Amino acid sequence: MEVLPLLLIIFCLLATGQACSPNGACGCCGCRAKARARAAKTNDAEMQVPSPEDDGNIFGLSIWNRTDLRVDQETLPLLTNPNHLFHRCCEERALPKACRQLCHFNAYTKQALEDIYLGHSECPLEFVPEIQFCSAQGMDQRKCCVESGVGESLAGGKCVLFCDQTPDKFTPVDHSYLPCVEKLEPMKRCFYDGIGARARQHFGKDSRGIEEF
């Protein structure tokens, strides 16, 4: 299989879910966030209902609005762990088990995406956009991506668009975005650092009155 079509299809999937565009074209960025994942029809994972602040529809991010969480020095390390929040989002969006195994920043790699497309992974291709959304927790990390050189590719600044996983956006994508695949790692670093910083502020002293570590 030629590398060009393979990587283009993978990155189109990273950019959007099939329902984002009326014509089914590839796009970016946080599309379909305000909808249950396609796996929600199964009982593979328990779905949690987000708070009204999320408009009741942004599945995967309910932990940010829960008021019944016990937050102390025992639970804070977990609540501020980007990998925990990444995986929890995938569980809440009811992704299949094989896909949830990729919901960790060390497991979500370019090689993993290629394995999915080539059929070497049990994670269905259609769930890649769900993983991408959860990896960013629906955040806009374009500023970090610019500073990290994500825009320094043959695609220019276009790659930075993929750092914005704000729910339900759509931007058409074509083959000119292909070089952005090589920028997945710095994107992930921005997502990881951004999630950690936000979680420490949200669950830490500023919001709960307890000391951060």
From TrEMBL:
Q: Which organism is it from?
A: Mesorhabditis spiculigera
Q: What is the lineage of its organism?
A: Eukaryota, Metazoa, Ecdysozoa, Nematoda, Chromadorea
Q: Which UniProt keywords apply?
A: Signal
Q: What residue stretch is flagged as signal peptide?
A: 1-19
Name of the protein described by the UniProt record: Domain of unknown function DB domain-containing protein
- Tell me yes or no: is Signal among this UniProt entry's keywords: yes
Q: Report the InterPro entries cross-referenced here.
A: DB (IPR002602)
Residue span, Domain of unknown function DB domain: 89-191
Q: Which domain of life is it from?
A: Eukaryota
